[in-house]
Design goal:
The protein is of the alpha+beta class and 144 residues long. The protein is built from two helices and five strands. The radius of gyration is 24 Å and the shape is rod-shaped.
């Protein structure tokens, strides 16, 4: 899941889907290697221990990646909540528009803003990456 932030540039194409080796894939490779080893020349103990250490490091890296993803989700949510009642400028297909953030909803952990423009229109499902300018002082909520 991609995490957006205010004014973020779109990321270039990421790594190919087959670039990651899962824990299950690693175990299959290791078991296949053990199954087809030459009985007269078994795997050196040092090599075997080195492979297990690599596997442990790979698992630790995977866990850290998941934890970082969770932190990025929290940061994105916090960033979006700080925009409530603030005047923002957002880029849209028709150019940029200025308005006040009136609501925030979350879809799959990603915040989507609702913005009321000066003309009374509502822009819905605006992502954080579309926000290009934020007014430093919040506007007072209007009562209708």
């Amino acid at each position: 899941m991609a995490i957006e932030s205010i004014g973020a540039a779109p990321l270039a194409a990421g790594a190919p889907a087959n670039a990651a080796v899962s824990q299950e894939d690693f175990l299959k490779i290791l078991l296949t290697q053990l199954r087809f080893q030459d009985p007269l020349k078994p795997i050196d103990n040092q090599q075997f221990v080195a492979q297990l250490a690599q596997f442990s490091a790979l698992e630790l890296t995977r866990q850290q990646g998941e934890e970082i993803q969770g932190l990025l989700t929290i940061q994105s949510a916090s960033q979006s909540l700080s925009l409530m009642n603030r005047t923002v400028e957002v880029g849209t297909n028709g150019g940029s528009q200025v308005g006040t953030v009136t609501a925030i909803r979350f879809q799959n952990g990603n915040p989507l803003l609702t913005i009321k423009t000066a003309g009374g229109q509502f822009l819905t499902d605006v992502g954080l990456s579309q926000v290009s300018l934020v007014n430093s002082t919040p506007t007072s909520p209007t009562t209708n």
